[in-house]
Every structure is written in structure tokens, then in C-alpha cells.
Amino acid sequence: MRLLIKVICTCASIFVAADAAFAKQAMDAADLDRVVTRAMETYSVPGVAVGVVKDGKLVVSKGYGVREIGKPGKVDADTLFAIGSNTKAFTTAALAILVDEGKIRWDDKVIDYLPDFRLYDPYVTREFTLRDLLTHRSGLGLGAGDLLFVPSTDFTRSDILHALRNLKPVSSFRSQFDYDNLLYVVAGQIIPAVTGLSWEDFVESRILHRLGMEPCAVNMARVKDRAEVAAPHTEVDGQLKVIAVQDLQLVAPAGAIQCNLNGMAKWIQVQLSGGKTASGGSLFSTEQQQEMWAPQTIQRTLSDFDKMNGTHFKAYGLGWGLSDLHGYKQVAHNGGVMGMVSRVVVIPELRLGVVVLTNQQNVPALMSIAMQIVDAYTGAARRDWVAYFKQMDEKMRQSDAAALAQIRHPADASAVKPTLPLEAYVGEYYDAWRGDAAVRLDGGRLVLKFSHTNGLEGALEPYSGNIFVVRWNDRSLNADAYVRFSQDFGAAKIDGMTLRAVLPSTDFSFDFQDLDFSKIR
């Protein structure tokens, strides 16, 4: 997602003349095939699943490519993908069901259900509502605390609840939008507090089973048949590789659902019908759907991308992003986990829903396909979105290359030597919300290792004085970081360390900037 955040404002638009016959019609099958195939080739995506729901029916349901490189299994409508943050809409729907039942209200205080809930500011703790959990306006920074689960850790949800009180805000309460995941985990904990059922059991029984979405599952551990599961992929040192499946059970309410086109089509159908199920029942009321699709947190609309899409207003609702798009209301969300990204778009006035699922960690490919389909139905001028997002991708790669060049060629080569002997940096370090980390000497070089995970361990390479660069052993993370050690006054001793990601493209969930380690021994 950082790719969109950092670059989308700087790209020039690319237009192709409007085609009147194309306007407000279903995308021609041959055109769709060409767009998807071109996006897959341009961005090295092994597999894509595309679904379109129109007027209550699944009118497009098609898979492209393979579930895993080097293996013959094809992607089809039954292939399961990790949908990432598109899970958030399921969490808000679960809470909407409880609102309909009179068991909770959106503006109830969180501490009334979770007495141990604390944020850094006591006032914010006291005033924080269930609505605030879902709207990314807490005052915490972008992705704050995500290192509690990225990469996979052995922390618990109770650990997350406790850690929140030590995360310092970057803005005032309810003043601006900053995307977060941890508060959705807290939102998920409201469900057992009210019903006695875990988030997993509630969502599985009250939503997935109710809509007949099987074999979709609330997390990978509950997928009964792994034969149809797509493998995650990403580029590692310039080559596309299969990577380990990210264990997201810890933060399931924020992003752990596994689903396929058939299941997501049923989810979109209930959204477009105002909460009505195919059997004529009601999953949630129309009133609650309107609440979930109502603007809660205002966002800026300053980018060229917004202008190209005729977007004048943009906001976040409850688990959904909201905007105007060529005169229509757009309800949409992206989802991203290590090795996979997805997009869901709903245009209520057109009774249209679009789902794109991919097994490569590449947002430009995802957006190219989704935008091309939406343009077809909204009657927008035809644009070459593959080329547009390719520009974004190239700009980000150039920024990364410049950052890497800075590491390889510091301005003053003599400054590479560490200020102190390597032994001075060795020891145990502690951060109030993340916990312990250790620096050790191994074969004449320093190695940094975070506690609670095997994923964050790597060699520290000298950069300048007390600044090093940690290169994580897992090269698929794309998250190498500067490590700045601090010295105490009056003595040649190290008393702490802070970190910052090296590459602009590093995902915001690697929130190294929020860490402030003190040396404890």
C-alpha cells in the first residue's frame, strides 16, 4: 500500500481516446483477457482471479495463470486467496449484526466492554468508542504497532491490548486519517466480550456459513482443503519466488480471511442488496449498511489519480473506503499480506461489484485490472492503466535504487568505521511496546535479533559512526533498516537504539520509526 501512498500524487495521467461503444457496458471478454494478461506479464504476477457481480448475478468469474510458479495447478473461481484488509468489512459487519440485535451501539465506549483497554492519553482512552476502533482516526501513526505481528510473532491479542498504551500518538484524537490494524484487533475482541464467542466462531457461523461462502475460512488454519490455495509470491533480489504463508491468526479481525471468487461474489451480493441474503433473510439491516457506508473520517483528494477519476470527496466509513468516481459513489477497499494483494469495489448505483484477487505482492498489477473494469462500467474515458501504474512502479524503483546507492556509497568513506569497538554495541535492549531485542557478536560482526519472532534477525553493517544498516536474513521482507545507536553523556557507552526503514517501498507495517529501545544490559 505504501507504493500508492508515496507515488500516486506524482504520476502524469495517461489517456486513450474514449470509445462510445465501450461506455457503461460490460467489459468485452477479449478486452478483459488482454488487460489481465498484459498486467500479469508487466508485473510478473503468477495468478489472478477476476469476478464481476452485476444486477445480483456473477457475470464474470475467471481465473488466469497458476496458483504457484513451477506447478501446473490453474487459478479458477474456487482458488482461495488471502484477502488481507478486505477482512475489515467482515469485522464491521459482525459488529453491525450485534448493533441490530441491540447488544452494542456504535458510540458505546470501548472501556465499557474491555476494561483493560488503554491508549497513551487517558482522555482518549475514556472517550474512545467502538466507531473510533474502525475509522483510523485514533491519533496513532500509519501502521503503528504492526511490528507486533509483522513478520509472524508469538504475541497474543492480550499483548496487543496492553501494548497500545505505550504507542505515542502523532496527531490529535479524531483529527486526521492514519491507517491502522491493531484497533481492528481490539474491535474483534468486542465480540467475545458481548457474545462469549470468539471473533473466528462468530464470523464463521453468522456470516460465512450463513451466506454459504464455504470453503472460505476466517484464517488459514481453518481451511479444510489446501489443494485449492494460492501460494504467495514476491520479488526477491529481482526474481519472483514463492514465500512462506504469513500467519495472521493473531490479527485475524484485521486481515486473515481466505476466500475465493465464488465466496466473494456472495459477499458482494449481500452488500448490493442492503444486507439481504439470497434466501430472503437479513444478514444486517439496511440502516446498518448505510452506517457502514457513511463517511466517518475525511481524507484528502489532492492527487492526480483523484483528478483523473473525477474524485471530489473521499472518506473512510466503517471497514470501507468511500469516494465519488465519475459521478458515482464508490465503496472499495484493498487488502495486502506478504505475497498477495486484493481489491473489492462496489458501485451501488450501478448494482456493480468487482473483485480482483492476486498471488503476487504487486499493487500496480491489482489496480491496473480493477480500474480498467470499473472504467468500462462507469463510462469513463478509456485509459491505459497498466502504463499509468507502470510509471508509478518505475518511480518507486528509482527511489529505492537511490536509497540503496546511498548505503553502498556513503558521502564520507572514512566515516564507515564504527565510533566504538563492536563489543560496546552488544547487549539486551528494551522497547516499551515491542519488548526485547538483542545485539550479539557472531563471527566478528554484529547481529540484531528481535524477540517473539524468527523473522527479524540480521547482520548489522557499519554505515557511519554509530549508525548501522540491518540486513534481515529473510530477503523477501524488503525491509532493511538503519539502526542508530545512542551514547550516554560523559561515557563511551551505548544506551539505546532507534530504527528507520531504508527503502521508500518498504511496507508501512514495518513501523521501525515507532521503536525507541533502551539498553538494559
Description:
With 521 residues, this protein is an alpha+beta fold. It has two domains: 2-138 and 173-379, 3-Layer(aba) Sandwich (Beta-lactamase), CATH 3.40.710.10; 413-519, Lipocalin, CATH 2.40.128. Helix content is 27%, strand content 22%. The protein has 14 helices and 20 strands. The protein has helices at 2-7, 29-43, 88-100, 122-127, 130-133, 157-163, 182-195, 199-208, 252-255, 261-272, 286-292, 304-308, 363-378, 385-408; strands at 47-54, 57-65, 81-82, 233-236, 239-242, 258-259, 297-299, 314-316, 321-325, 328-337, 340-347, 352-358, 427-431, 435-442, 445-450, 457-464, 467-472, 481-487, 494-501, 517-519. Strand 4 (233-236) and strand 5 (239-242) form a beta hairpin. Helix 2 (29-43) runs antiparallel to helix 13 (363-378) and helix 13 (363-378) packs antiparallel against helix 14 (385-408). The longest helix has 24 residues, at 385-408. It is globular. Residues 1-24 have low confidence and may be disordered.
Which architecture of the largest domain does the CATH hierarchy give at level 2? 3-Layer(aba) Sandwich
Which segments are poorly predicted (pLDDT under 50) over 5 or more consecutive residues?
A: 1-24
Provide the β-strand percentage band. Answer: 15-25%
How many beta-strand runs? 20
User: Could you tell me the mean pLDDT?
Assistant: 92
Largest sheet: 8 strands, antiparallel
Given the structure, what is the number of helices?
14
Shape: globular
The first-level CATH class name of the largest domain: Alpha Beta
Radius of gyration: 23 Å
Tell me the helix content.
25-40%
- Find the structural class using helix and strand composition: alpha+beta
End-to-end C-alpha gap = 38 Å
What is the fold-level CATH name, i.e. the topology of the largest domain?
A: Beta-lactamase
CATH superfamily of the largest domain: DD-peptidase/beta-lactamase superfamily
Instruction: Kindly report the spatial arrangement of strands forming the biggest sheet.
Output: 2-1-12-11-10-9-8-7
Whole-number tally of structural domains: 2
